[in-house]
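Exercise 7b. Backbone tokens:
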């Protein structure tokens, strides 16, 4: 039986995949604004190809494109009737590609857009929304679960609690906006402790910030809890004093000049490993070339020695 997430983490760093929604928007398959993932049922071949690119680059995890696939986000985009199909198809596509290699499939939960702190009815609604996605993902078959990009610690806590009921390993990561604190005010270390107590096996940070700004936050979590730590930065450079790339005027249509070179992501992977970060991935703006550079830096794949496409081994133009 293939090793699961926790066994792999115990043996060394695990490399995640890259960003999906922004890359699929650039390719014309996802609508900017809502960024909902109906591509899994409308153009499944496009999603399958991106999964395959990440797998070929060296990713050990393929995240099913179930981010923003909760009932509230989809209803706002006019897709309320397709919640279950979108979630199930996203997992099916990721599973199909994962079988081509040795990758695990992660089901993903994200902020619902319906969470109101201190409101019991809101909390019950969010629990039910998470449960619906979890039922769909588990029915098709995922290896573990990731709840990510939470700004509200309370919502992240609910995610950890509901994901825990599946019996699968659970990863939950926060996304800090202007300051590295949850919206309620808890520090990164405090968030890590709350999430571990709520049932998360792995805790960490993802999105909004690039590697330079995200790694110190992950290091704070590393000091706060004994659990494995995840760090998945965006592949964008943001200016001083503006850590959140979504707050920039370039978001979402003019981000190209801000995209980091592959060497920067490779350097991040090495520094993350040195800091004791064991789930090393990437988020928005990270494409296959970034993931491959990270995989090479971590020694998971060898440097490229392939013949360039369109050239023969003797350097003559191919036919």
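Sequence design result:
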């Amino acid at each position: 039986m293939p090793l699961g997430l926790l066994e792999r983490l115990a043996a060394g760093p695990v490399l995640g995949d890259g960003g999906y929604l922004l890359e699929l928007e650039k390719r014309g398959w996802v609508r900017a604004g809502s960024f909902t993932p109906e591509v899994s049922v409308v153009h499944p071949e496009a999603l399958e190809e991106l999964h395959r690119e990440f797998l070929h680059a060296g990713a050990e995890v393929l995240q099913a494109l179930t981010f923003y696939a909760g009932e509230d986000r989809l209803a706002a985009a006019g897709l309320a009737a397709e919640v279950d199909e979108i979630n199930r198809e996203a997992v099916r596509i990721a599973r199909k590609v994962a079988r081509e290699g040795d990758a695990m499939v992660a089901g993903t939960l994200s902020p619902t857009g319906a969470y109101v702190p201190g409101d019991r009815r809101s909390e019950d609604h969010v629990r039910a929304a998470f449960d619906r996605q979890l039922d769909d993902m588990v029915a098709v078959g995922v290896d573990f679960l990731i709840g990510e990009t939470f700004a509200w610690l309370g919502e992240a806590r609910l995610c950890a609690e509901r994901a825990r009921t599946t019996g699968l390993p659970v990863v939950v990561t926060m996304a800090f906006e202007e300051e590295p604190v949850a919206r309620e005010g808890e520090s990164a270390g405090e968030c890590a402790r709350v999430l571990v107590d709520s049932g998360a096996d792995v805790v960490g940070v993802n999105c909004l910030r690039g590697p330079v700004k995200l790694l110190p936050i992950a290091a704070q979590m590393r000091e706060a809890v004994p659990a494995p730590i995840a760090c998945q930065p965006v592949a964008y450079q943001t200016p001083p004093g503006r850590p959140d790339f979504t707050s920039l005027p370039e978001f979402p249509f003019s981000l190209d000049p801000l995209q980091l070179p592959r060497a920067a992501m490779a350097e991040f992977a090495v520094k993350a490993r040195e800091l004791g970060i064991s789930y090393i991935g990437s988020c928005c703006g990270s494409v296959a070339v970034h993931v491959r550079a990270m995989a090479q830096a971590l020694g998971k794949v060898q440097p490229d020695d392939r013949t360039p496409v369109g050239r023969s081994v003797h350097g003559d133009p191919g036919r």
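Instructor comment: The chain has one domain: 5-297. The longest helix spans residues 120-140.
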